[in-house]
Structures are given as C-alpha cells and as structure tokens.
Design brief:
single chain, alpha+beta, Chorismate synthase, AroC fold, five-stranded antiparallel sheet, 16 strands, binds flavin mononucleotide, binds ligand EPS, chorismate synthase activity, Chorismate synthase, Chorismate_synth_AroC_sf, Chorismate_synth
Length: about 350
C-alpha cells in the first residue's frame, strides 16, 4: 500500500491499524542535536487522545509514546526516530455486524474494492487512530521550529460559528473548554449542541481555523511545492476533511483587486493580509492562516440503508464508541500537520541555496 509517508526531508511514515496491537511511526530527516521535550510531546498526545471528554469517542487509550531509536540522552541523533503507541482498548466485537457491510461514507467500500482485503475492526488503517502518530511527528516538528507559533481552534460546529477574527481572540481560552473553541460563550453553545446531536445518535461537522505566527520569509517553492499547496495537501490528508481555504479563501472571490491587494509598508510588511502570509507559494513573513472543514462523522447510531459486499441491500447501524463531532480532537492534528509541513519546507529551504 503506497501513501504511508508524508514529507520530503522531514519525513513521517506511519504504520498500524486501529485494532491491531500498536500503531507507530518512523520520522526521518530530523537534524541531530535537538533536545527533545518529552512532556511537550505527551501534552500534544493528551489533547488528541480518545476518551478525553464527554463530547468525544469513549474509547480509552493512554496514548503514551515509546521511542525506540534516533534519540540518545534526550537528544536526536540524526538517525530515524522510531516510536510505537499501544492499542489497549480495542472492542472489535462492535464491528462484527458490519464485517461484510459497508458503512455509508466511511472507507469500507473503497478499501474493499481497492485491496480486496478489509480489516473491518475499527476501520483498520482508515481509522483516525493513525493520526496519533502524526501528532508525535508534529510535536517534534514544533520543537524544531522553536519561535514559530502554531495555534488552531474550533471556529464552527454545525451552524454555530465563531464570528470573531483571530486577532480579536484570546488563545488562552482554547484549552479551557472541551470543544477547543477560542471563545467561552460560543464554546458552551457548541458543547451543548454536540451533546444533543450525540443523544440523537447522530453526528455533526465543523471547522478549524489555524493561525501561524513568526514564520520566516522564504518558506515554500515557487512552482508545484508551493507552501499553501503543501498545507492544503497536509490538511486534506486528515480523516473527514472536506475543505481547505487560506488567506481570504472563498470570500476573496467577492472582492475587487483594489480591495484585495495587500499594500506594502516600507519594511516589506503589509497593511492587510488577504494573502494569508503566502505569495507565489512563498511565505512573506505575515501571519499564515487557514480554515479546514470537517464533515459529520460517518458512523451514526441510527439505521441507514446501505449494501453488503455482495451488492445486496443491507442496513448499517453504528455500535460502540464514536466521535459525535471530530473537531475538538482534530485541533492538535491540524497543528501537527502544519508543523510537519513547515519543518519540512524549512529544511528544503536550507538545501536550496548556499
Ligand atoms: C479526530 C478524528 C476522529 C474521528 N472519529 C471517527 C469516529 O469515531 N467514527 C467514524 O466513523 N469516523 C471518525 N472519523 C472520520 C473517519 O476516520 C473518516 O471519515 C474515514 O476514514 C473516511 O475518510 P474520509 O471521511 O476522509 O473520506 C474521525 C476523524 C478524525 C479526524
Ligand atoms: C481510536 C481512535 O478514534 C477512533 C476513530 C474512528 C474512525 O473511524 O476514524 C472510530 C472509533 O474507533 P473505535 O470504534 O475503535 O473506538 C474512534 O474511537 C483514536 O483517535 O485514537
């Protein structure tokens, strides 16, 4: 199976299935001599792990990382960093009834048709459990990036939107509520709504905004490997993501050039930032910001019409533990993927000129 790696120099390969004994990864290209902060890595894992609050899946995993290689006396050695995360709380019987049945809008049908082998237990490799490995890689990338500050927060759950611009928000609010919305009042509305939706056995989508400050000028390549293209690929590779827009995004289509152009100050900074910190694929030193859209989770606790592997009409009904809304746990995943891209492009930049 191709597609298990991400990045060109700072390269993360992940392995493992949701209901196998463990998941893990190999991170290549991390420069030697980086003093790792293991508590910071663990803190990122705790932000993503299942079972952390009442509005997420109740699967209970510790999500402790065991490092196997590439680190000596707390510092990276420049060799591949191998790590594993145990799966402890699999309940594979929750999936027995859909062994030969395709859940609408999950990956069951496409995996089966493509490979002819489907690990139906917890969705196997298609489960978002794999994103735990991305968070490990991203936490190391964040440490490499030092002064670059990557902050993501939930900006919509269903039709409940946080209307404030990121510059008006107090980011210290984000970790104070289980939704990870940067505004306490909106967060409590969102939390209430997710609980209602869960009671109905249904699910809801949402939006995450990511803001990246202190980005040096010059990350990104002018053709193909444009920084925004890499960020888009990274975000769209996260399970359940349906949309990506950076800078003015789709709203920019409604503006005139005279309104949209970012006018320079004499020091090269710009008075506005509709470009979203990237021009011509290269970071311009302004804050990078983008939105990521997530669909409602496919596995619902309601009966839905579907088909089985023989193409016969069947019924699918979710059992067990599922996220009613993925955005609260996807916040650290978005940050991790952004960090992986920036670390990779920083290293690419280092080799592209003397
Ligand atoms: C943090 C997170 C948690 C998720 N939890 C669930 C879940 O509990 N149940 C489910 O059916 N899908 C869940 N998903 C989404 C599926 O993994 C995803 O829909 C599936 O792999 C099919 O891929 P696609 O939606 O990108 O097409 C989750 C996604 C993320 C990012
Ligand atoms: C296990 C995690 O999330 C899982 C993601 C997921 C899916 O279909 O993506 C389905 C559920 O799996 P299970 O039925 O095995 O509990 C979630 O709990 C995790 O994020 O670590």
């Amino acid at each position: 199976m191709a597609g298990n790696s991400f990045g060109k120099i700072f390269k993360l390969t992940t392995f493992g299935e949701s209901h196998g004994p463990a998941i893990g990864g190999i991170l290549e290209g991390c420069p030697a001599g980086l003093q790792l902060d293991f508590e910071a890595i663990n803190a990122e894992m705790q932000r993503r792990k299942p079972g952390q609050s009442k509005i997420v899946t109740q699967r209970k995993e510790a999500d402790e990382v065991t490092f196997l290689s590439g680190i000596f006396e707390g510092k990276t050695t420049g060799t591949p960093i191998g790590f594993t995360i145990e799966n402890i709380n699999q309940k594979s019987a929750d999936y027995n009834h859909i062994k030969n049945i395709y859940r609408p809008s999950h990956a069951d049908f496409t995996y089966d048709k493509k490979y002819g082998v489907r690990d139906y237990r917890g969705g196997g490799r298609s489960s978002a459990r794999e994103t735990a490995c991305r968070v490990v890689g991203g936490a190391i990338a964040k440490q490499l990036l030092k002064d670059v500050k990557i902050t993501a927060y939930v900006s919509a759950v269903g039709a409940i939107e946080l209307k404030k611009h990121f510059s008006e928000l107090d980011f210290s609010e984000i970790e104070k509520n289980p939704v990870r919305c940067a505004d306490a009042e909106t967060a409590s509305k969102m939390e209430k709504f997710i609980k209602e939706i869960r009671k109905e056995g249904d699910t809801v989508g949402g939006k995450i905004t990511c803001v990246i400050e202190n980005v040096p000028i010059g990350l990104g390549e002018p053709v193909f490997d444009k920084l925004h293209a890499a960020l888009g690929m990274a975000m769209l590779s996260i399970n359940a993501v349906k949309g990506f827009e950076y800078g003015s995004g789709f709203a920019g289509t409604k503006m005139k050039g005279s309104e949209h152009n970012d006018i320079f100050n004499e020091d090269g900074s710009t008075k506005t930032n509709h470009s979203g910190g990237i021009q011509g694929g290269i970071s311009n030193g302004e804050t990078i910001y983008f939105n990521v859209a997530f669909k409602p989770v496919a596995t619902i606790m309601q009966k839905q019409e579907t088909i089985d592997s023989a193409g016969k009409k069947a019924e699918a009904e979710g059992k067990g533990r599922h996220d009613p809304c993925v955005v609260p746990r996807a916040v650290p995943i978005v940050e991790a993927m952004a960090a992986l891209v920036l670390a990779d492009y920083w290293l690419i930049g280092k080799v592209s000129k003397f």
